[in-house]
Amino acid sequence: MKNTRREAIYLAGLAGLMAIHGTSAAQSSAMTANGTEVKGQLNSGLVPSPVAYTAMLPLGYENAQDLPLLLALHGGDGIGGFAFIQATVQAAWASGELAPCVVVIPNSGRSFWLDWRDGTQKWETFMIKEFIPHLRTTFKVGKTASKTALIGHSMGGLGGLRLAFKYPDQFGGVAALESAIEPAFNYADIHVRNSFFRPPALMESFFGKPVDTAYWEANNPANILVARAAQIQASGLQIYLDVGDRDILNTFDGVEFLHRVMWDHGVDHEYRVVRGGDHWGRTVPPRFRDGMRFLTRQVFATQDEDSSQLANRERINQMKKATGVDPAPLHLPFPRTRP
């Protein structure tokens, strides 16, 4: 067998790492390595257990300290629909688009990454109270918001936005692609074009039977954003929204809605509508790389303001003041788009 000695050393090093951090009922009970990937599972009383996950370790991990932690959240089609992520991460590392970090892909099934109304599954609580602390004690990652970010697709984009908006002090950034969110503040206002792929029985499993509309609204990213806009903006949370204009599930309605809500409430973010992009398919992996590039630039390896433009900005600001225009980058509400 090739590289047997190197693999043995690598496995021994991982075993030593686990031994240093110890184990408990809420920590990994079994881990194996395959190259730079570690397969783990975490026992919990909050969600169906054990929760399996894959951790991808960058080159030089054995000599690193306080690496960033990137949580990759899959969509409603489950971990199988996220098969492209490992190759995408490797390509982004090779190109420098993604900073060296530990990328962790947990498997939640079709969970909505949510605390279910009936209390049978508490994925939000699990992620914040158990899973992230477990990762921080198991791997060589930092323990601050600036070292922690989320990226997700579809249901994972929805979950990532909800977690980041509820806990902006815990995350430095979130990249949400094809987020399966509705363009509404009230449950009764959701149109069938944005819910046809979620039968009533499925929504009742998450939000109660009948659906507790107040509970849905309390967990809707747009509502959370409005309620916590000042806190989110003050936290410095970096937000990236992406959606394809050919999304077969019509999620461009919800993502555009959230973009406008964020704009109207002065929450800074980056927003991209991808021409020809669908919910799945060949455009998604390169768009994931774009999201990871954003997180690297804005969270993991932040850059100072372009100093070459300071004099020009001052000149333009003086022009604004002279004409009575506020130089602050205010986000005025969008004007009506229909005559």
Give a quick set of tags describing it.
globular, 339 residues, 38% helix, 9 strands, single chain, alpha/beta, nine-stranded mixed sheet, Rossmann fold, 14% strand, disordered N terminus
Taking the sheet with the most strands, its summary is: 9 strands, mixed
- Please give the oligomerization state of what you see: single chain
Question: What best-fitting shape do the alpha-carbon axes yield?
Answer: globular
Helical segment count: 11
* Named CATH topology: Rossmann fold
Q: What's the level 1 CATH class?
A: Alpha Beta
Q: Got a strand count? A: 9
Supply the helix-strand structural class: alpha/beta
Lateral strand order in the biggest sheet: 1-2-3-5-4-6-7-8-9
Output the helix-strand order. HEEEEHEHEHEHHHHEHEHH
From the N-terminal CA to the C-terminal CA, the straight-line distance is 72 Å
Number of domains in the coordinates?
1
Mean pLDDT: 89
Please mark out the parts with pLDDT under 50 across 5 or more consecutive residues, or reply none: 1-12, 15-35
**Fourth CATH level, the homologous superfamily:** Alpha/Beta hydrolase fold, catalytic domain
Q: What CATH architecture label applies?
A: 3-Layer(aba) Sandwich
Percentage of β-strand residues: 5-15%
Helix content, binned percent: 25-40%
What's the Cα radius of gyration?
21 Å
Please give a structural write-up.
The protein has 339 residues and is α/β, with parallel strands linked by helices. It has a 9-stranded mixed β-sheet with strand order 1-2-3-5-4-6-7-8-9, with helices on both faces. The chain is built from 11 helices and 9 strands. It has a single domain (4-322), classed as 3-Layer(aba) Sandwich (Rossmann fold), CATH 3.40.50.1820. Helix 2 packs across helix 10 (284-300) and helix 7 (221-227) packs parallel to helix 9 (251-264). It has helices at residues 4-21, 85-95, 123-138, 155-166, 200-207, 213-218, 221-227, 229-235, 251-264, 284-300, 310-322; strands at 32-34, 37-42, 51-56, 69-73, 102-106, 148-153, 173-177, 238-244, 270-274. The radius of gyration is 21 Å and the shape is globular.
